[in-house]
Protein 1
Amino acid sequence: MYKAEFKLEAVTPIFMRGADQTKAEIRAPSIKGLMRWWFRALAGSYFGDDITGLRKAEEFVFGSTGRRSRVIIEVDSPKPRKLHFKPGIIDRLTGVSKLRYLWFSIMLLSKEKSGCQFQYYYPPNTEFSIQLRSFGEREFKIALLTLWASVVLGGFGFRGRRGAGSLAFAGGDLEIFENLGLSTSFKSPEDLGNSIRRAVKLAGKLLNKNTTVRMASYPTLSEKTCCVALWDSGERDVFGALKKFEGNYLRFRKNVSKPERIIFGLPIKLGGRGVESIKDRLNELKNARRASPMMVGVLKINEKPFLKIVKFRTSKFHYNNKIDEIANWKTLARFDKSIREIVVYGSKSIFEEVFP
């Protein structure tokens, strides 16, 4: 059997729950679900809109209702802490309440007790271990790739696309990643870009695919369809870096037209002036669901916190044509220019191009 164990550390707070939504819990099924998402992003570079082929490849590794998973994932969940939202307490303890715009929904999920809001969470520097096991070498390596992408590029739990739940590899069998050509600690932005290229190339090799596709209807980690960038906020503190990004993000949203804000995700409530051109679609926008094509997290380069910004271009923004035709991808290109990020993989230009 092929097996490995890794120690992961929270860079930013983790707000993750299990079946009991009142308790914080880092669960193997939740992590496996995120790994499956990144499997599709990696494999999608080769399968494109061959959804049947992609689904078969995913089920072969991670299983389905009719097939057992070939990869076993176990997690040692640590003990969570109680996060208070009482004014004057939370700022001193964690600084979470400073991010009222990026993490607004976390506060909405909190419970009220004796006039003080709280919920359970995992603070920065929390460590836990994850074990991967498989009888197949190919499946094991694919699982390693997806875990690597989940940790390095993604975010875990609530507001994982807006800076919460950023993790880092802190120990364990890290030489396994090094043997695959994947870095787990980064000395430069170029180091990150090279590791992503290696991960995408290795995914194709393991899937017996050698031709990349132009664009799919779902997010794919191809240089032709995504942009991975780093932003140096100038801050040495994780919360300071996120706060500075929050300010830039909020100002940008306020300075673009209301219809242009749609590209950052749905649902969205729009009203008042500036919506006359889409007033017949406001109700559809309010009820529609579409995850933001932009993911934001924190990644340390030489121990300094950088904002990692991962954006995906897809062939359609939404399956509803009335919504799809008003989504403006160029807004993401304008946002890129507003913060002067460093592109390490892919290109900003994909958000300015017009595709048939």
Protein 2
Amino acid sequence: MTEAWMKALGVSLLLTLAIECGAAWAAGKRGRALRTVALANLLTNPPAVLAVLLWRNAGLPGETFLTAGAELLAVAAEALVYRTRPGDFPHCWRFSFLLNLLSFGTGLLIRGLI
């Protein structure tokens, strides 16, 4: 793995953690709930970003579809993590979707794609 890839993985993870944990904090999540958000993102962000980097490096068509699929898988996986804490996340699917929409949309803005 190249230094550029490691940097891309690290920056993506740090931004995602900052955005999603910040949004969760703004939504009133504290303590265990914030740690759960961080854990969910530690589990989903690196594989999703790595898949896109590998796809892009291979020069394969359909990166947009791969990215959308990776994001949907991340939403589902994170919602399942949140579901283990129903007291902290009563609407785990909606919460996961909204956090991922916020971080993905912010990423698009940063990259200047929208």
Protein 3
Amino acid sequence: METWVIVAVVIAAVAIVFQAAMLAMMFVQMRKTADKVERLTTDLQSRVGPILSRVQILLDDTQPKITEMVSDAAHVVYLARGQAQKLDRVVSEATDRLRGQLVTTDRILTGALETIEDAGTQFKRGVWAPMQKASAIISGIKVGLDFLRSRRGARRRTADSVDVEDGEELFI
């Protein structure tokens, strides 16, 4: 049994030595990695540092200009809004005036057309109807005269034919 204890102690000692060696190798590897990271960080800082300082200088120079541009833009928007409101009022007033003028023009044209229609009706009653009556009377007189002429012409023909017959008898 003692041998088993000795074997277990030897195995435990070997395992502890193995673990210590592994930890030492991990420490060395971590140290190398930390050195690489530190070198990369230093290199990155040396490269990015001047860029960041330039950006900071640029921002310091442009910040007042940007602030002024934003202020000017806000003022332009304010002025544009005021002008748009004025234009809206002018267009609304012009539209209202035009609408009123159109209503007035419509009333004037309607009144003129009604007056023309009344004048046409009055002309028809006052002038045209009597002219039609006079034309009917003249047509009646003309028909009567034509009738009388045709009767006289028929009498002359019969009288002439009677005279011709008498004259023929004379020549025979």
Protein 4
Amino acid sequence: MSTVLRVGGFAFGFFTDDHEPPHVHVRYSGGRLVMEIETERIKRVTGMNASDVAHARRWVRMHRDELLAAWAEHFKKEA
């Protein structure tokens, strides 16, 4: 995973073979989740409690523009 943002102990990133829609993989304290950036829709959660998920959602909301720009840049290079 290429980490593009670290905040509050959370790491946010993408995998090289990721696909649309823009989404982010989040790691925190041994747990992981996948969330669509624009809609904040949770695709998968492993090892995170509801509070962790709420914090991840808040960070995605606060850094949405940055994450979308990083997605565009990351996958422009891969194309």
